[in-house]
Amino acid sequence: MEKNDTMTAHNYMVDFTITDTEYVSPDVVLLKMTPADSKVQLKEMNIRPGQFAQVKTPDNATFLRRPISICFVDLEQNKLWLLVRNAGNGSRAIMNSPVGATLNIILPLGNGFGMEICGDTPLLIGGGVGCAPLLMFGAHLKANGITPTFLIGARNKDFVLLEDKLSVYGPVYVSTDDGSYGDKGLVIDNHILKEKFSSIYTCGPLPMMKAAAAIAKEKNMPCEVSLENVMGCGIGACLCCVEKTVKGNVCVCKEGPVFNITQLLWQN
Fold this sequence. Notes:
Elements: E1 12-25, E2 28-35, E3 52-55, E4 66-74, E5 79-85, H1 89-95, E6 102-109, E7 122-127, H2 132-143, E8 149-154, H3 163-166, E9 172-176, E10 183-184, E11 199-203, H4 206-218, E12 223-226, E13 242-245, E14 248-251, H5 252-255, E15 258-260
Parallel strand pairs: 7-8, 7-11, 8-9, 9-10, 11-12
Antiparallel strand pairs: 1-2, 1-6, 2-5, 3-4, 3-6, 4-5, 12-15, 13-14
């Protein structure tokens, strides 16, 4: 494979051409794209579930790139999927990019989910766009003979994300704040949590992840969380995304974004 620009031995800077755009909720778009250079093959990048990409905003809408979780990699079609929420000028410029537009992306970055703790019955919990990395991880688990259970949360029925795509790999349970779909209330109050699981993986709002981690600790289940600290450079140079851990301060973009909860100080 010819690399456009090598950042490190495992990171690449690639121009991607958008092939599909799909509004999956009123403020979230699923972008599907393929490398502009057909010689660039995603299968050679060893992209792991839970890693992220740094996307340059079109027309330099913002000075810094925007970190976005890698939602899925379609190796057969050589396509990258990104789930983009309208959270400001940068993300809005990215999500409004039309089919045929080019986005410059650095990937894959950070450390992803690990299967070492999953066991036979993992529960994957996502809140909002935190569902994004769970799709690729669910596919990875299924390919390894493990059927995950998904639990996702949203404000209301219109904002439930990726349910149809997640259901390909395992059963999906939903909570909405207003009860318009699935269980009413917080994700952590969903009835499925009364069942027994071997592990928990979660990504989404910080209060939700802390609550999920507390449940995992109470039930003596291993748990990994994907942090969404504010990031600048994405490679551990700017110290913008520092998190306190049992080993001291670390950069989430480089040491994470996925951490085992035993590494964090949430419950100490």
